[in-house]
Design goal:
Helices cover 35% and strands 16% of the residues. By secondary structure, the protein is α/β, with parallel strands linked by helices.
Amino acid sequence: MKTFSDIPPELCEMVIAHLTPEEDNRFKPGSKADLQNANLTCRAFHAWVTKYLFRDMVLIVVDIQHVPKLLRFAEEKEDLAKHVQNVQVQIPPGMRWEIGMGDADTVRDSTTERLLSHFGVTGRAGLTAQQKVFCARYHEALVWPFFKVDWFLLLNHAAAVSKETLKLLPNLEYVEAGICERENLPWPTMTQRFIKKYGADIVNATNPPYEISRIPNVACLSNILVVSIPRRVKELHVTGANLSDVREWATINRLLTFSYQLYDDTINQAKLDKIERFTLNIRGAPGVQRTSHAGVAVHPNDIGSPSMMNYWKQIVWSLPNLKHLRVIGHWSQGADTHAADPNRVNPLPKACLLDLFVPQDTSPPRSIYLHDFIVHQDTLERLVLSYPGVLERLTLSHITLKCAAGRTWIDFVERMADLNCNVEIEVVGPLYIWASQTWKGCKPVLVSEEEARYRPEILPAQPSNEPLGLSKGDLWSDDEELRQEVATDMHAQSDSDMMDSDLE
């Protein structure tokens, strides 16, 4: 071999495949630098670089006037658009501007107050004319677009752009919802021009910093993608928002209500009949969030945990060709989730959110992956027993098992072995047991290292003569009340004291 041009094609593909970004980084800015360098290094790499360089693309919708690059690419480069297989659709995050305003009268004044430490002065009177201009431009570029933008128009624009762009990609198979951070907004937006002038670190100049809210935005975008993706898509990765602020008139909740209403069973289910892999991230506060009035619930088309889970339940469990389902918990207690009006919120952080998601009489996937949840033992038993002969694998990662006192993961696995099922159950540590007859007075206990590694294959066994589930004395009365209350929440009408005018 004398030159790079003499490299065998098979070896070229192996080299280029090795330079391809890992799955977790494939949509991050700059992740394709190695591929681009390889393209400049050797002509023999060019054919393979083209394939991998355009396989993973990002559709950024950050402004109503901004034409996304991926849309222009798909329209102008039809010969290259055929290589696009995976797309992440991004919108910008929101900003909780009302937090930490101090004595400022306006949001613009708040920005100036937060930038005083950047210039080393203690009051606005100490700023020079040039520094005041900087504060004004910082506000226009890095604050105003993220709280003042008309999010209803942006979401409608995102829906239109997504439909128009994704249909132009003939080999598209995977679609994901994501966020475009402020420092990554594309050129020629005002934000990008400002950051290019002062450097990416300038976004952190404010002290105290603005609190960024991502969860509601990416959840709204996820709902939009459900109704926007073309029929050929086989894998969808979306996000649900479990918010502790359940005020129907709050801006973020009105956005969620708006996006929930976009889905129509009869129209959109046909678009999803090719979906084989579905990932649902549930971001926000842990547990079940609902209104505090006894017997009064959140309407299924509005906000709150029952409404959110009921919405995704009707979508996920109606996919006729779904083979692999992943439900992943991402919990936080930051600006995205805290309640602005705690008097109207009744959080149940120890409740099993997945109780709202387990279906009845549906076509199940072959594998189910659950990560970072508190799960009742009877919920898992229902999952295993509801789909005899179809469900092949159940993976439990970082799960806290809620069961009777004295029970362990080994007991659960042995219980599954006693049932007449053919499911491979994999438990991945750290795993916890929350076993007590007094739920409120106990703490989760990490299982032993040996038990955390225990990954049994549950094979068919003789049918057990024991009745299904635990005896009544092993259950908690408060859990039964919780399940009944949550079931009521999912089917009740909206709170009568929330006037329709609040939503207009």
